[in-house]
Amino acid sequence: MTSTLSNAGAIYLDTDLALSQIGDVEAMNSMLAMLQDTLEKDLPQIDDFLRAGDVSNANRLLHSLKGFVPIFSGPDLCAHVVLVEGMSKDMQSKTAAPAYLVLKPQLEQLLAEVRAHLFTVTS
Fold this sequence. Notes:
Layout: H1 15-22, H2 25-51, H3 55-72, H4 75-89, H5 93-122
C-alpha cells in the first residue's frame, strides 16, 4: 500500500521509506533538498573526475552518495551505488568509469524524482 506522500510513477525515490527512517515530513523534505543539491553538484563533478582519471576524488563524492541513497531509495539502486563506489575505492578507473556511466542515468532519474517531489510540496 502506498501513502499519499509517495510519488506516482517514481522509480527510485521512495518517500515512504524515507519518512519511516526520518520520522518527520518537514525534516524529510529538508533532507531531500540537500540530496537535490548534492546530486546537482556532484554528478557533473564525478563525470569530470572520472574523465580525468581522478578516481580518488570521484570516490569521495560517490562515498557521500552511498550514505544518502539508502535513506531515499530501495535496495537495487543502493546496491548499484555501493558497487560503483567500491570500484572507485579500489582505484579501478578502468572499471569504475564504465560502471558509473551505467549508474549515472539512475541517479539522474532519482534527481528528477526529487525535484518533482519538492516542486509538489512547495507549490
